[in-house]
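[job 4471] stage=fold_predict status=RUNNING
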Amino acid sequence: MRRRSIIAAAASAVAMAGLLRPARAAEDPVDVLLVLATDVSRSVDEDEARLQRDGYYASLTHPRVMEVIRNGPLGAVGVAYVEWSGESYQSQPVPWTRISSLAEAEAWVGAMERHPPRAHGWTSISGAIDFSRGVLAQAPWTGTRRVLDISGDGMNNSGRDPMAARDAALNEGITINGLPILKDRPIPGAAALDEYYRENVIGGPGAFVIPAGDFRSFARALRRKLIMEIAGITPEPASRA
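[job 4471] inference complete, writing structure tokens
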């Protein structure tokens, strides 16, 4: 019995590795290369970090998101997950994953679960953009579009001006969308975070912001945002998700 369990576990590991293994770009183009860049600075506590992760788990495997993926011209997307905080901390805990089926989406979720988030220092949106540009440059497939999805709960307070990083990304043909998490904690004298993202973070063809009212509404906002990004359409202006 123990031997059969070991063999089954090994077979499962091999299957998972196959689902997450990058393919050659010439063989497997995708409709969009999408980097999901998530704030893990110290302003995000353990419960909030879990709500973010749960939002990604639920969204990437949601029937509506899978339907949009399958209905694309190529029926597949390339997804990379990045965690970021201050200027000196960015990480890609899960490799690029080609998602064209629910099994591949679930494998991506499983890989994320093996790398729980840890909180780190300050908030460098510019560092997140610069790091994600490198991640996109190393994508193992070609994509008809390249999109960077930045989510976070604060303004840039570490590293260079986020507008300079944004402009560098736009010059490379990258579109940046934003998912600010508002948390109902306005900073006296500062712009609302969603307006800050519109002015300083997003850019490129069809770029948009979909704010989440708080971490508990993150999953709903993310799902809506993913559908728009994968389908390549821009939402009408709306209130908080």
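[job 4471] summary: The first strand starts at residue 33 and ends at 39.
[job 4471] exit 0
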